[in-house]
Amino acid sequence: MNIETFFRLTVFATLAISVGISGYFRRKADLEKNEAISRKVDGNALMNIIRLGGLALWLSPLVYALNPDWMSWSKIGLAEGWRWLGAGLGVLSVFGVYWLFSNIGSNITPTSATRKEHKLVTSGPYRWIRHPLYTFGLTLFVSLGLMVDNWFMMILGALAFTVMVIRTPKEEAGLIEKFGDEYRHYMKTTGAFLPKLF
């Protein structure tokens, strides 16, 4: 097996496993709660940006896995060591994705809205950061961009993270409304996307 085939298979496996984990837990949450979550809470413009950007973000590594030549227009020319670093980050990201979804459980929603019976989760990665989904998502797409050796995917990942950062204050306002001082205290003791050092 040549090195490009290895990276193609690793990209495909990383993507498939991450999507599988996310899909499983999201579907399980929807079935358990049997509750329709309004997608209007984030506004039509933001949701359209998230949908279109998400589609491009998820399709790019898949296109590479099918045929690397289709993504050659955005190749960087990284040294092989960077691509191996991407593979390592990809493995860590898959474990991170499982860790966060297994801890948030049925509280996961497709928007910044909270569920009626939402419980404040402060275990697992939520013990240190309030939005590990965004952190692990960014790490996942950086890892894929490194493995694919592709600036387009890295920029898409950074833009997706930026949109989530823009949406975060609205999400946190909803959590403050639901949990009050308990969430305010949680905000003081944790970082939004990285652990607080002090």
Quick rundown:
This protein is 68% helix and 0% strand.
Tell me which CATH architecture applies here. Up-down Bundle
Could you tell me the CATH topology label. Four Helix Bundle (Hemerythrin (Met), subunit A)
Approximate helicity band: 55-70%
How many individual helices?
6
* The first-level CATH class name: Mainly Alpha
Distance between the termini: 47 Å
**Weakly predicted, low-confidence segments:** none
What are the secondary-structure elements, in order, as H or E? HHHHHH
Labels describing this entry:
68% helix; Four Helix Bundle (Hemerythrin (Met), subunit A); 198 residues; mainly alpha
What can you tell me about this protein's structure?
- The structure is a single chain.
- The chain has 198 residues and is mainly alpha-helical.
- The chain has one domain (3-189): Up-down Bundle (Four Helix Bundle (Hemerythrin (Met), subunit A)), CATH 1.20.120.
- The protein has helices at residues 3-33, 44-66, 80-104, 132-148, 151-179, 181-189.
Sequence-ordered SSE layout with sheet pairings:
Blueprint: H1 3-33, H2 44-66, H3 80-104, H4 132-148, H5 151-179, H6 181-189
Helix pairs in contact: 1-2, 1-3, 1-4, 2-5, 3-4, 4-5, 5-6
